[in-house]
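(Deposited chain)
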Amino acid sequence: MKAETTKVLLPRTVLETGIDKDIEFEGSLADYLPGINRIIRTEANLLPEEIELNGSKAELKGKAVFSLLYESDYKGKLKNEKFTVNFNQKFDVGELPKGENFASVSCRCSHVSCKTLNPRKFILRCRGDIRLCVSADAEAEVVATSSDSGAFYKTDTVSLSGKLPPLRKDFNVEESFNFEGATPISEIIYSHIKLIPESIEFSDGNAVIKFNGSYKCLYEEEGEEYKTTLATRKLSTSVTIEDDSISANSAGWAELIYDGCEAIKEQDNYGENRIVSVSAGIGVILHCYNSNETELPVDMYFEDYDCETREGQFRYENVKTLPKHKFALEKAFEIPELPFDSCIDKESEISVSEITKEGEYFQIKGNCSVNVLGEKDGSFFTQDLSFPYSVELSNESASNEMKLKAQPNILSTDVHINNGRMNVKVNAELYLESREKSTVQCLSGAEITKKDEGGDRKAIIVYYPDKGESAWEIGKRFNISPDNVLEANGTVFDKTNSVADSGTVLFI
């Protein structure tokens, strides 16, 4: 007869792939808006909304949000408008393993441009870098050790650390900021909220994510003279994600998706427009994993039956997060014909293009881009800056099978201008996720047959074991319980149930 079997779930990464996708939007300004005199800055943000696995296909549905900052044909005033276009992208993921499969996706805009057709019509284009990862808890069939069959089992403890399906929660941040002491606000040009995940507290059934960040508002001041001011305020908040798959032993990191930020001016107690009320739609995606210890059978035998075992070799992948790595990037640019002499605002983005392992180190390479909004004599211009970077990380325990995934995040950006020279300093951090492939060998099946009756077993067996031989090995040799071997010869074995010294006589 066959031994009973059971299924265990082994975490694996099934597929990692990416694609560059071009997204285009042809639009026009609303009738109430002034026309375009000159484009100053164009931005795009890709928002993944839904990713579905269906058979051998994966489909991403999302939207691209374009932001257009321009100098209008009405007194040269600044205007900023947003435009949204939906997109979808299909992937061929091939044959998926049995078990639970799930997909995660990340989107980044690598290039954006705007072509004006006339003062009111334009074409916006962006190129999206879309990355897909398909993970699985693949099923492996092994001999069941829980059955009451009278068998003696030898097991190995395997630590399995597998990813959970991404958990998303959409929430709103609503705040009011008082710009007390500042010149009253005539018109808000644009506003933006940026949050940075500071910590995640896991407990059974939920995860509390705490954020620190800032709010910034570029606005036109009241008065006859047209003047713009950038105001910033600190901001902190927290979000709780509830899910039965989360446990106190979970770990992971959070990714933010900004859906938009709306702001209106309000009057303070003195009737002046110095209060800004903000509402921002934000999505947080929690990427986490759970660790557990699993006992897998590697050998078995019976007292009264013969047992012919089959071994199977199974591959799995352990995932864990590493401590965040903070670093600073500094670069000086010589720009003799810089069109402005003061910095109004700046936006930065950092990407990872390559991760290589050299000995006990990981080399992370990528690109940092900075967009600077500047002003001179009442006119506004932007300057795009870009430079490569390289960061070296030490990891003494890194094996050849280990892969590293790095998610960058901008903490702050400083820009100083002096005589055509622009000094840029970007403070950033990397969320690090390591994945290490391993192989486990265990019993995948066994055939059990009745022993041939060969007479009575001798009552006493004298055996001279080798040093280091285990009670399990001796028990299997003579088809008796390892517990009986230990009970009859307790002083012979050390704490690991192995023979302490060779030449010892055992009575079984």
User: Anything to note?
Assistant: Residues 145-301 form one domain. The CA atoms of residues 207 and 241 lie 5 Å apart. The mean pLDDT is 91. Residues 471-478 form the longest helix (8 residues).
